[in-house]
């Protein structure tokens, strides 16, 4: 099954929003699989980019959007975690210093590019190759844009992944959350932790940010954290009932009414999230390895055996 050109045309084009002077969010509708948000900060001598995008075409469009704002080069690139929607485009910024968590580097080097066929509808990934961070930090690092400090903080626990990083600009009360926060989309935590994600949401609140640029979805306020928290509690409660009934994650997902979460994009993620929740009920620590390929294949099965919709 391939994705039609008409389906791509249904999407609104990416947009640039100046969320504070010299600080820009790059929003890619509709925020579903591999359609992430990025951002950039413009200084007198260069640009700091928060992530890239998933395909060559989309990353080149992102770089063109930056060039319409400034003629300064991208000197620094921060990866908020290792997933391909954040890092596939790294190789298109050869002059940039790439910064990320050590596990981000490890995971990029261990992850196939392009992704395995058959999981998502056809995507033209372009001419890309893995390019991991070559400056890594464990806890906290400051990057400067002229005299504006950008604090990079590693999440206190595995959450969306084992290597989540946020970018906090305290003088402007702006927080780039990476995929610790989805707005309008289903959270996805099989490679991290349900419980860890709940802890990470409390950690996001602790910054006191007025403006949050989520990993997917529109620029938001801290109120956007609440629905994500509710969904994760829903996953935990559903998993506890299903495991007690002896159901597999896929069987349980098929019997579950998503209720208020049914209209979130990519609802099939409930299956992968239940895989992680089951592992945690069995005592797995946040970030412990689970059978991620099996979880992904179960999501395809939940989707009627069809590849998952991806308009990247």
The gist of it:
With 312 residues, the chain is α/β, with parallel strands linked by helices.
Description of the structure:
The protein has 312 residues and is of the alpha/beta class. It has one domain: Ribonuclease Z/Hydroxyacylglutathione hydrolase-like (Metallo-beta-lactamase, Chain A, 4-Layer Sandwich), CATH 3.60.15.10. It is built from 9 helices and 12 strands. It has helices at residues 5-10, 56-69, 84-87, 102-110, 194-206, 225-244, 249-255, 269-281, 292-302; strands spanning 15-20, 23-27, 38-42, 47-50, 74-78, 97-100, 135-136, 140-145, 148-154, 165-169, 174-182, 211-216. The strands form 2 sheets. The protein has a 7-stranded mixed beta sheet. Helix 5 (194-206) packs antiparallel against helix 6 and helix 7 (249-255) runs parallel beside helix 9. The longest helix has 20 residues, at 225-244. The two termini are 15 Å apart. The mean pLDDT is 96.
Q: Give the % helix.
A: 25-40%
Oligomer: single chain
* Radius of gyration, in angstroms, nearest whole number: 19 Å
Instruction: Give the overall pLDDT as a whole number.
Output: 96
The tally of domains stands at: 1
The CATH superfamily turns out to be Ribonuclease Z/Hydroxyacylglutathione hydrolase-like
Task: Give the low-pLDDT segments.
Answer: none
Q: What is the annotated CATH architecture?
A: 4-Layer Sandwich
Shape: globular
Q: How many DSSP helices?
A: 9
Please list the strands of the largest sheet in the order they lie side by side.
1-2-3-4-5-6-7
Which structural class do you get from the secondary structure elements? alpha/beta
Find the CATH topology: Metallo-beta-lactamase, Chain A
